Amino acid sequence: MAEFDVIVIGGGPGGYVCAIHCAQLGLKTACVEGRETLGGTCLNVGCIPSKALLNATHHLHEAEHNFAKMGLKGKSPSVDWDQMKAYKQDVVDGNTKGIEFLFKKNKITWLKGWGSIPEAGKVKVGDEVHSAKSIVIATGSEPAALPGIEVDEKTVVTSTGALSLGKIPKSLVVIGAGVIGLEMGSVYQRLGAKVTVVEYLEAITPGMDGEIAKNFQKILTKQGFEFVLGAAVSGVTQKNGKASVTYKLRKDDSEATIEADAVLVATGRRAFTEGLGLEGLGVEMLPRGVVKVDGHFQTSVKGVYAIGDCIPGPMLAHKAEDEGMAVAEILAGKHGHVNYGVIPGVIYTTPEVASVGQTEEQLKEAGRAYKVGKFPFMGNARAKAVFQAEGFVKLLADKETDRILGCHIIGPGAGDLIHEVCVAMEFGASAQDLALTCHAHPTYSEAVREAALACGDGAIHA
Ligand code: NAI
After folding, report:
1. 265: confidence class by pLDDT, cuts 50, 70, 90
2. Regarding beta strands 255-260 and 242-249, do their DSSP bridges make them parallel or antiparallel, or are they unpaired?
């Protein structure tokens, strides 16, 4: 039995970042992780491997569609699926080893196994019980099951199985037009699959600014995606290695079935808190396994904290990381804080989609007086040079004060561009502050500045 200042349960982006920052602040820290490698879902079977596959298939798309236009003629590359998966795994392995190195460097003890909390101040891993002044639950989330659908991770898969299909399907049905469905759908669409997305709501990407979502759907449809909206999937059956997806259209209750080589169930994730012993401990829970915390991330049991996907808020790796940093600060007697008003969201398709702050719909609902500055990438020379002039930047600012309230981007590098707006918002900047900031030419970021100019006297190139 060892004694620690902090034991973090879970080695994903929330947990490992929390552990490192605790150690940096001088706390004797351990992290419990039952997987063979650190990094959690994000690094092992989520954000990172999917980005490797998106990168590889983006290059394939460029070779097939844009190389000849640039005078690069010849045969397009053929796909070696096993090699592509090996590349993906190399990317994952490099990163998981990196975290292991950081643990050693920061003298963090990795307690290998699955942890539970038999009583406050104690964490059980295997047969051993360790003591800690504070415990941080960072156990993340798992794919939510859909009634009537049995996942075998071969033909009917979650995001995990979708990263390692045995072969490239000729047809893929994606259930749910959220982030996972559209990112993984893009991978297989570029690899030649006919991708049909069946979505319960009348629009894709719930919660996204409506104008951006509409534009995004148009662009994906042009790429070859098919969308069936307003359709509730009621069941999936399998026969001879093929799957049949049955859905009901909400407008008239009519039923239809689509056949496909593979089905991706991407209908959301739920908190993963089973087996921790939280009920016995008396931790107050919210519905669906979510842990209730106060403004300092402490649960209803003193000394037991929780962060990341298993507490309320968006299920995003960077939100979990920020909460992990904040808890570490709090445990070290400092003032940890997360600004939930400035958490960016990114979808890594081509084009990328990114947003921060409020959507136009939210501002309308709040009855807030706002102005909109928009700029299309068609007016951005750099975007045109790389055949990525689809999409636009939309900046929302307070009508009276000009303070930036939100930004929504669909276009090249959107996931990186959004951060200048995040910084601006953290500093309470106005649209004019952004517009008066010199932006290098030619860069995609000029489109952000132009959108800021459009909140004032007008953009130059539109
Ligand atoms: P999601 O919540 O983003 O989307 C799920 C979609 O499925 C919704 O549009 C919902 O209306 C639809 N749906 C639910 N039941 C249905 C049914 N029976 N029939 C048809 N449609 C149905 O969930 P997703 O994509 O699984 O992602 C899970 C979490 O992981 C999200 O919180 C997401 O933010 C996060 N994530 C973030 C990424 C990123 O930041 N790039 C990448 C991957 C995941």
Report:
1. very high
2. antiparallel
Residue 266 Cα: closest atom of ligand 1? 26
Compute the chain's Rg from CA coordinates. 23
Residue 140 alpha carbon to ligand 1 centre in Å: 15
Q: What order of strands is seen across the sheet that includes strand 352-357?
A: 345-347, 352-357, 404-411, 392-398, 370-376
Q: How much is the pLDDT for 451? A: 98
- Ligand 1 centre from 424 Cα, in Å? 29
CB 24 within 8 A of CB 106: yes
Confidence of residue 161 (pLDDT cuts 50, 70, 90): very high
Instruction: For strands 392-398 and 370-376, give the pairing.
Output: antiparallel
Rounded Cα distance between 337 and 331, Å, is 12
Which of 180, 265, 272, 353 maximizes ligand 1 atoms within 8 Å of its Cβ, making it the mutation to test the pocket? 180
Residue 434's contacts (CB-CB under 8 Å, 6 or more residues apart) are 395, 404, 420, 421, 424, 448, 449, 452
Q: What is the model's pLDDT at position 70?
A: 97
What pLDDT is attached to residue 2?
79
CA distance 367 to 384: 37
Q: In the structure, which protein residues have their CB atom closer than 6 angstroms to any atom of ligand 1? A: 47, 146, 175-181, 183, 198-201, 206, 232-233, 266-269, 314-316, 345-348
Which residue from 139, 142, 114 is spatially nearest to 273, judged by alpha carbons?
A: 139
Determine whether 441 is an active site residue.
Answer: yes
Report which ligand 1 atom has the smallest distance to the Cα of 309: 32
- pLDDT of 240 reads 87
Q: Which of 269, 355, 356 to mutate to test the pocket of ligand 1 (most atoms within 8 A of CB)?
A: 269
pLDDT tens digits, residue range 35-75?
Answer: 999 999 999 999 999 999 999 999 999 999 999 999 999 98
